[in-house]
Known about the structure:
Elements: E1 2-7, E2 12-20, E3 23-32, H1 48-65, E4 72-77, H2 79-83, H3 87-98, E5 102-104, H4 107-121, E6 128-134, E7 139-145, E8 148-155, H5 159-166, H6 174-188, E9 202-205, H7 208-219, E10 227-228, H8 229-242, H9 258-275, E11 279-282, H10 287-299, H11 304-315, H12 320-337, H13 345-353, H14 366-376, H15 384-395, H16 411-428, E12 438-442, E13 446-451, H17 452-457, H18 460-473, E14 479-484
Parallel strand pairs: 1-4, 4-5, 6-9, 9-11, 13-14
Antiparallel strand pairs: 1-2, 2-3, 6-7, 7-8, 10-11, 12-13
GO molecular function, one term: pyrophosphatase activity
Organism: Sapientia aquatica
Protein name: Ppx/GppA family phosphatase
Amino acid sequence: MYAAVDLGSNSFRLHVGRFDGDAMRIVKSAREPIRLGAGLDAQGNLTPAAIQSALTALTRFRTILAQYNLESVRVVATNTMRIAKNAAEFMPKLEAAIGYSIEIISGEEEGRLIYMGVAKVLANPAETRLVIDIGGGSTEVILGRGQEILKVASFSVGTVKQSSSFFPEGRMTKESFDAAILSARSHFEDAAPPYQTTRWTHVYGSSGSIRAVSEVLTRNKIGDGTLTLRNLENLKEFCIEVGQIDQLELAGIKPERTAMVIGGLAILIGVMQELGINIVHTIEAGLRMGVIWDLHLRATQHDRREQAVQNVSVAFRVDQQRAKLVSELAHILFVQLKPSSEAYTAQLLWAARLHEVGLVVSQTGYHKHGAYLIEYADMQGFTTREQRNMSKFILSQKGNLRKVQDALSDTDFAKAVLALRLAVLFMHTRLELTLADVRVRMKNKIELEIKGDWLTQHPTLSYWLEKEHEAWSELNIDFVLRVIP
Length: 485
């Protein structure tokens, strides 16, 4: 069984799923409507009250998760966590509350996971489709065909800000609706061409906001209940007639959710107008289902991150032979260093394969260019934390270690850095290294044992090992070289 936890701007949600034949069966769902996005203050920080609400919700989720024998759990945070300036300060508390690490994913990665969840539910593998997800802090638009994603984009317009900005004190007027819709359209207009009607046959709405609007149309018998522009316009006119959000009685919607539904209505009209959409079909699938499927694929050796690394490698014209050699050497050395867990193994090997991406920018300081490219590249399947770790590995592959000194307090991280540095060093000296040729240990000091004839066969090796000694000595870590007869 797998669990997906979605820390959204409107609600925190949880799914526990079991793979059954060729389908994923959801055996438990939970929702905490904490309205995190509304907890940002004027400086962009989450307030103590919002943080406490999040901690309480995650503590409840931890109790639920403990009831299941789970193979893997993934907790993802979306727009509000992406933009909260104090996220790094309170994140350890949130992770302690739920008992798992929390990944702040990019809008593009959020869109890919949403599409994966939708595509796994839909039966038609040849259908070209558009998927729209309107969240509390952002809106994702994804174009795909069957299981394949053709284009994904995340737009910084969501129900929380749209509701508070254009319907202050709950007033709904023609002018406020028109302004909210126009504002929404302005976010989508530059990105419209790739998503226009010639590219897809059906449009699906995967978010709770879109499903809530659909529920309002159906339960309140507005038009024929379908999500068409005409019916949405009719709903808008009905809201304007009522005039106040707190006086709006909509069957199927709890009063506390009404303001978010109104913000979502304005965004949905805006995106449909801008992209030329006449009807949207709702679907009970999205981010959480995508996360669960992604966990299952990782467990069955279909990790999307592998393809992302290959794509980046090709895009930046990495020498595949050198990359493969460094990855193999780094793996040999890291195993010898005996890390306490496998937490950094995959990230180290991916970084090794991409250690020379910076050469596409310049030979000088290529490790610095590479670190920047990997940290900020759009890499499918990777979290911000994973890319940041890989970036640090690439940055630390040569030169002084002061630039990653803080990270080296993590012993396993330091071992991964040492493994990569030595792998790059040995690759440049063209040594054909096997497990029996070298010994390396790292406890209170670094101890490296190599064959004596290496120094004779490769005159520059002594120079580079001396530089390595200097680099670690600057951090008060002894680097001891022993020559094996």
